[in-house]
Amino acid sequence: MDYFKYLREEIIKRLERLAEGGKLPSGFDSTKVVVEPPRDPSHGDVSSNVAMVVASQVGMKPRELGGMLAASLEGHEAVAAVEVAGPGFLNMELKASFWHARLKEVLTAGTDYGRSDIGAGEKVNVEYVSANPTGPLHIGHGRGAVIGDVLASLLEWVGFDVTREYYVNDSGAQVDDFAKANYRDMRKQRSLPVEQPDSEELYSGEETADCATSISARFSTDELRADFQDSLPEIRRHAVEYMMNRIREDLAALGIRHDVFTWERELVRSGAAEEALRTLEARGLIYTGVLEPPRGKVPEDWEPRPQTLFRATDFGDDVDRPLKKADGSWTYFAAD
Predict the structure, then answer these.
(1) Which among 162, 158, 159, 170 has a CA at the least distance from the CA of 133?
(2) Contact 148, 156 (CB under 8 A)
(3) Cα 242 from Cα 213, distance rounded (Å)
(4) Distance of CA 273 to the CA centre of its chain
């Protein structure tokens, strides 16, 4: 039994009976009535806003209507005590016999207790973890992995058709820098000079060294001597593959699985991002504009410039979001 739903129905029945008896006008709207745990446990087992929601519709003060409802609930098989509190909250303490009956339900249902079909098979996509493939998972990723997986499981438990998605950000400057770091480390491992001026500013440490060692056998010394730009696509592909394998192993150790791995590079290559953005543009949700400077200390390299923006403020966001970087490539937000 969903006892919150049950008690809400019982309260609304009392309202309807009061209306049928001429004590209240009929035709009130009860859709916003809720029954939920009170914020303070000392206020009882459940609390309802019913009097505050309906009172103005029936020309009464909330506490007055609450008193009528409290009186109508006296003697109810589930309710041990009821009081009107504050501006008109209806607080209820439930009988021990009511809780004992719920325990029997738990024992009878076993591990299926709480399962429902309220989702009615509605499709839900839960994207979680989605760590950039430029290093192994850290504790923050682990937290997100657990929260995302639990949320997906709960949605499945109540009848939603859930897809678990990992969005692989394998495009953009961060992944290029990771590939450059692997190129640097592979050259060092073969005693080749490192000529990249920014090489020491790139990713470094155990994760890049291990990755470089793992993928090094796939590249000849001549390939590593050649112009870096010629080798970049292959180095990037192998480095991302290596790191995603490590990430999958860590997720498997946590018992976490994903149904779909969506690759940003493939999304961009296929034209899916452009197609989606054309659809949004046709709906008037994309425009060219200039964003306000960021709050707080403004970065030295910030300058007002026309950008392709998405009207995110139409959906409750604080600012409209840029879709393209200064070099013309998509932002993370656009592809996502």
Answers:
(1) 170
(2) no
(3) 11
(4) 21
Tell me the pLDDT tens digit for each residue of 247-276.
999 999 999 999 999 998 888 889 888 888
DSSP bridge partners of 286? 310
Quickly count: other Cβ atoms within 10 Å of residue 184's Cβ.
23
CA-closest candidate to residue 67, choices 25, 96, 24: 24
Looking at residue 297, what is its pLDDT? 75
CB 164 within 8 A of CB 152: yes
CA distance 129 to 24: 53
**Terminal-to-terminal C-alpha distance of the chain:** 40
Q: Give me the pLDDT at residue 99, please.
A: 96
Bridge partners of residue 126, in order along the sequence: 164
**312 contacts 321 by C-beta, under 8 angstroms:** yes
3-state secondary structure of 35: strand
Binned at pLDDT 50, 70 and 90, residue 199 comes out as low
* Beta strands, E only, 34-108: 35-36, 46-48, 79-85, 89-94
Model pLDDT for residues 157-171, shown as the tens digit of each residue: 999 999 999 999 898
pTM of the shown model: 0.71
Q: 74 and 82 in contact (C-beta within 8 Å)?
A: yes
pLDDT class for 196, splitting at 50, 70, 90?
A: low
Is it the case that residue 326 has pLDDT exceeding 70?
yes
Question: What one-character DSSP code corresponds to residue 118?
Answer: T
Distance of CA 147 to the CA centre of its chain: 9
Instruction: Please state, in angstroms and rounded to a whole number, the distance separating the CA atoms of residues 219 and 225.
Output: 10
- List the beta bridge partners of residue 308: 288
